[in-house]
Design goal:
The complex is a heterodimer of chains A (508) and B (360).
Chain A (H helix, E strand, L loop, with lengths): L1 H7 L22 E2 L5 E5 L9 E2 L6 E2 L4 E4 L8 E2 L4 E10 L7 E9 L19 H10 L12 H10 L4 E6 L8 H8 L1 H15 L3 E7 L3 H11 L5 E6 L8 H9 L14 E5 H13 L5 E7 L7 E6 L4 H8 L7 E4 L6 E2 L13 E5 L17 H5 L6 H9 L3 H6 L10 H5 L6 H63 L4 H13 L1
Parallel strand pairs in A: 1-14, 9-10, 9-12, 10-11, 13-17
Antiparallel strand pairs in A: 2-8, 3-5, 4-7, 5-6, 7-8, 13-14, 15-16, 15-17
Chain B lengths: L20 H23 L1 H24 L4 H5 L3 H11 L7 H13 L15 H12 L1 H4 L2 E2 L12 H8 L11 E2 L2 H10 L4 H4 L23 H13 L6 H20 L7 H6 L3 H8 L10 H21 L6 H18 L19
Antiparallel strand pairs in B: 1-2
Helix pairs in contact in B: 1-2, 1-4, 1-11, 2-4, 2-5, 2-8, 4-5, 4-6, 5-6, 6-16, 11-14, 12-14, 12-15, 15-16
The chains are: A alpha/beta (508), B mainly alpha (360).
Amino acid sequence: MRILEKILGRHPHWGVHPDDHKRPAADAPLRSLPLPEVLYVPLQQHVGNPARPVVLVGERVLKGDLIAEPNGNISAPVHAPTSGWISAIGEITAPHPSGLPQLAITITADGADAWCERLPVADPFALAPEEISRRTAAAGVVGLGGATFPAAVKFNLGRRLQVGTLIVNGGECEPYLSSDDRIMRDRAAEVVDGLRIVMHAIGAREALIGIEDNKPQAIAAMRAAAAAFGNVQLRVVPARYPMGSDKQLIQTLTGKEVPADARAAEVGVLVHNVSTCAAVHRALRRGEPLVERIVTLNGGALTRPGNVLAPIGTPVVDLLRFAGVSGRPARLVLGGPMMGIVLPHARVPIVKGASGILAFDAAEARTLTAGPCIRCGSCTRACPMGLLPLEMASRIGVGDLDSAASFGLSDCISCGCCAYVCPAHIPLVQFFSHAKGELSARERSRLRNDATRRLAEDRAARLAREAREKAAASARRKAERDAAKAAAEGGSRPLSMRIADTTSEAAT
Amino acid sequence: MIPPRPAGPVAAPHATAGTNVTRVMLWVCAALLPATLFGFWLYGWPAIHLWWLTTASAIVGEALCLRLRRQPVLPSLCDASALLTGWLLALSLPPWAPWWVGVVGGLFATVIGKQVFGGLGQNLFNPAMVARVMLLISFPVPMTLWTAPLPLLSANAPGFVDGLRITFGTPPATLDAMSSATLFGYARSELSRGVDLLQSLAAAQAPTINLLGERAGSLGETASLLIAAGGLLLLGLRLISWHIPFAMLATIALFASLMHGLDPARYLSVSTHLLSGATMLGAFFIATDYVTSPNTAVGQLLFGAGVGFLTYVIRTWGGYPEGVAFAVLLMNALTPVIDRYVKPRIYGRDRRGTPLEIES
């Protein structure tokens, strides 16, 4: 069947090729944002438990000082992005479409931007791999491609599973975004040094850097930086969305397919983003925690689109002012247009995973009315996971979630290819997100019900046991009493009783 | 800087490929245009009148049902799917068929063939073929009365008014009944008279096929090359995939060559099967209907091969000289079954859906 698939062209004919809109923003030189007056640093900027504040309101902090420590195994610390004082610890609007409140530490900048004491490592390769993990974790480095999974946790996993190949993700397949492109052009040496440190941390033999062919300058810069290292190879991959997705990039670069219930590390590869590698370099070589990142500012409503280096916690409104807004943006998006989330307003801060802020004009934000599905199958051809979006959506539409799950809903990566190509403009991703949420809520309540039932059963069993034991004990006592009575009447008393009699006689 | 609140929830992706259903339907209509215009020229004004009557009836039927279903009429009509259904039906009718054939067929196609099932995307069977088969079974005489080509502007071609009179059932006395036979019909009746194909096709009155399509047949089915050109346009625009047309044509060709090779006196040749009747229109425009065909590549190959096989069987051994419409409907009925058993392999899983083994 695999051969048939190849002939029929199922692979790699997945995905879509949207207009990339990356230029001119990608070609504009990297700028530094003037230091904002106030920074709002959320405690949850990563996958896992939110960090726990270790500072008090009014306290002075220097840039890079720890302000919140990790909480649990999967968590990440948060550091002060500039020097100043803690003006509040409380709720702000989260950078999330719900607009729900989220805990954050507010820092009022003193303008000096003075660093704390940094502990650079001259030769990270002399350190034990465990020590690199420890320092990476302490620097608060998380996956900067958008997943924001704590990087050190992945290092440890890779080391434990003896991963041989590190894949460095320079795909950046989302349209509009160019922060990874920029970091590869401007800081290629840092990226390559960082990825070599990551290789050392996980014990990988080789590294494959995958870059889409629409970034010639990044390819040239990275090729030059990696030339000296024989075990670091650069592979140019076709520009095809979602090439930057782990599974698709692994398949394109190594031909390996990650089994549905396994992690990439289990097939011997680990994926890290180029920006994450650069952050690891800074954490080790300079002793700098992750307190700033490159953010792409793009979209039709901006007059000077481009990439800026901005401290974590910068309010989006400051970034937009810097990039010049013409009129009122019709929509603000955090991330790329294919998977990004809508921001409720511009007074939310950027976080570690914020690769871009897009300010769409009315034309870009146009939402089209959905019509009936004509079963054209465009979604099926576009799906990089080999799913049948139209079948799943039709079942979710009538509330048959279990049937949708049997079509592989759990394998959906929400890349948005299906909804992008749909001529009927059906919001397929929304269908799937709804169904996934509903199914997981159902699963949670099933687990809760199971637990409740188990507790009730245990209690019933315990009560029955106690009743049984009580009955047995009373039966035993009754038997003993009966026996004693019989002995008293018959004169043949048990030995113990006779001994008791003698001792009591002796005492008297 | 607060962007205006959108009317509904807005989720990713915030981009679209910029296509829409109307555009898809209109491109298919555009691909039909060369063969249609050729049909108009070949069969003159009666064919033009039949075409507009049929498409208008299909659109009226759709509008009526949308109204009864309390759906927005105009936006739904704008998807041009009713236009395409009526158009395809018109192309499959005898060009000089009376007005009521077009009207009944057009209404039946959208009302019974499509809207009764729930409208666009919900019908199990191809609406145009449902209507054509209903007409063929219910009114076999007007549905098998073929006209010899009488090109527009030729000496005795009917004019606009005479065309109307032909379509509306009062043909002018001056006009001879220019009835003719299709090749399939002729071959079948001769065979049933005991005349084998070698003799009957060599006879002077035998219909011939030529690549241009100047012969008796349905309004838009004779110009095989023009239809195929339209089909290639759709393939080039990636509006249809190659799987169904290829499988259907290859299967017909395979069986025709096999049987013709065995006994040329009883079985028609490959070129006859491919170039006459509804083969080309069926392969590129009818069997490829999105709604009623499977949605995976392998499923489409099976479907196309099934249509091809059934077409050959019905033409050769069945009760009707032409079998594309029946074959398409029969395979339409199998589409849900094919879709149930033929699914693409999910990344990270085998065909049965179990996760792949971990190999490192």
